[in-house]
Amino acid sequence: MSVSTMELGDGLTVSRIGFGGMALSDVYGETNPDDALRTLHQAVDRGVTFIDTADVYGEPRPGTEGPAGTNEELIGRLLADRRDEVQLATKFGITGEVTDGVATRGDRAYVRAACEASLRRLGTDVIDLYYMHRRQLDLPIEETVGAMAELVAAGKVRHLGLSEVTATELRAAAAVHPIAAIQSEWSLWSRDVEARVVPAARAAGAGFVPYSPLGRGFLTGTLTPERVAGGMLRDHPRFTEHFAANQRVVDLVREVGEETGASPAQVALAWLYAQGEALGLPVVPIPGTRSAKRVSENAGAVEVRLTAEQKARLDGAADLVQGGRNLTTSADWISSGRE
């Protein structure tokens, strides 16, 4: 069975669940490109046709500077055969590795050059949804979105999105051009965006695309300390020193799953759909996986229905969490750090 569709904002219709391409890069350990491509084909076969990537995802090439682009090249291999089936999202703005003090750019010249580079790597002539991945904080967001709007006028981009913006930044951007989607981390254990960003998105007519909707794998109950130690989460307290304490969240998700006949991943995703309905805006999560089996499992979440009592219990999960969601020591990296 194929998944249904949902309209985000600005007339952009996508599959009700998306696929986060970052999982197919080496950020969580080594990957095999051919296996990754097979997983992408499985996703599209299953009806998960909203594919998310970014120019910065992937391993940097020795001797080169700027975004790696290797994840876009992988997605380009999928698009070579199935472009008409895919709603393609990519991002620009991060100009180096994700570390403390990471560099960003949003000036007009960079926006245009980044788009051209992404189009080349993806092997397509248009991007369905183009995100500002992170904003350049010393440049008015209106300038960056104005440059993005020029790409829409030129036919290189169809819709605009923003990632990890504050409510104030979103309102300023939406005054320049309609915003189809906001992408930020959001899950039953990372809910800071609900205070200001989600209401601003609803008011702007933008949909919400939660990244890491499964808590970077933690909420599935399959993440181990050994896997954490071998990837990008090895210095993150939520996943290291607080790993054992945060199992209480996993236990709660697993408990609800046993009641509904759903997996922990499906429960976590079903909670996001229910929360989107409660808060009045379209929500399309983009879980990532390297496993074709997990693609089908995640897609099955669109059929899971939580009772009001189960939803209320899951609402309390955030109170059990120890450790914040920011992967860096810079408060500016996530929207709540700037609000």
Describe this structure in words.
Keywords: Oxidoreductase. It comes from Virgisporangium aurantiacum. This is Oxidoreductase. Pfam families: Aldo_ket_red. GO terms for molecular function: oxidoreductase activity. The chain is built from eleven helices and nine strands. It has one domain: NADP-dependent oxidoreductase domain (TIM Barrel), CATH 3.20.20.100. α3 packs across α4 and α8 packs across α9. It has a seven-stranded parallel beta sheet. Strands 1-2 form a two-stranded antiparallel sheet. The chain is 36% helix and 12% strand. The mean pLDDT is 93. It has 339 residues and is α/β, with parallel strands linked by helices. The radius of gyration is 19 Å and the shape is globular.
- Count of helices? 11
Structural class: alpha/beta
**What is Rg?**
19 Å
How large a portion of the residues is in β-strands, by DSSP E?
5-15%
- Placed side by side, the strands forming the largest sheet appear as 3-4-5-6-7-8-9
What coarse outline follows from CA principal-axis ratios? Answer: globular
> Would you identify the regions where 5 or more consecutive residues have pLDDT less than 50?
none
CATH fold-level name? TIM Barrel
Largest sheet, in brief, is: 7 strands, parallel
Helix fraction by DSSP (H/I, runs of at least 4): 25-40%
Average pLDDT taken over every residue: 93
Order of helix and strand elements from N to C terminus = EEEHEHEHEHEHEHEHHHHH
The figure for the number of domains is: 1
Number of strands: 9
Multimeric state: single chain
- Full CATH superfamily name: NADP-dependent oxidoreductase domain
Organism: Virgisporangium aurantiacum
GO cellular component, one term: cytoplasm
Domain NADP-dependent oxidoreductase: 16-317
Keywords: Oxidoreductase
